[in-house]
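Researcher: Here's my situation. A collaborator sent me these components and asked whether they could plausibly form a single complex. I don't have experimental data yet, so a predicted model of the whole assembly would be a useful starting point for our discussion.
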Amino acid sequence: MAASENPIAPGPHDTPARAVLDPWQESYRSLRSLLLIVIIGVLILTGSVFVFLLREVSATRHQVKELTQYVAAYEKNSVPVMRQFRDKLIEFVKANPDFAPILSKYVNPTNYANLAPGANSAPARLLDVPAK
Amino acid sequence: MKRDVLPVMLVVCLVGGVLATAALSLAYIQYTRRLRALQVEVSVANRNLAMFQQLGAETEAYSKTNAAVAPILEEVRNNMRSAPVQPAPAPPK
């Protein structure tokens, strides 16, 4: 079989077709390379954000744990002492009205005027002693 | 065929990374909300402790003129020895 009769064999006729295809192939290759570069870039960016968030979450979790322990210790140890002190002073001020001006700076007088000792309602200025 | 493996692997890695980052972002948002709520509680606790200590100091000053308040102060001191008031943790960065 002669070379000119073989449809697969390159001949002088397919030179223009190759000339048309080559720019498309070149564009395809460059587009593919560009896509790979973009994917790798986004992957690096995502990895960086992931590492940053991992560190932030770790630090935040540590702080949450620390503050939770502090608040729990405060509610367990300090609140009963403060509440007891407040109640004793409220009782004391009934017998010693001259102490009332001092106590009224910290405990709203309207709150302790009719307050039964040991009641859990928090006074207005010693605001947020939480009732258990 | 071999040429198609690399982009597919990269895309799979990318999707996995994006999903993991999204999950981590949600966890971060939740932890941050909890932290803010706790910070408010801690600031309230610190304010109450400061007021308590100030009231104690004023009561102690008053006890010099009226000794009847001394037993109350003594009792509070004993209670504080058994359950010491801790210093507030350092504020977060």
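Model: Some features of this prediction you could bring to your collaborator: Chain B has one domain: 2-82. DSSP finds two helices and no strands in chain B.
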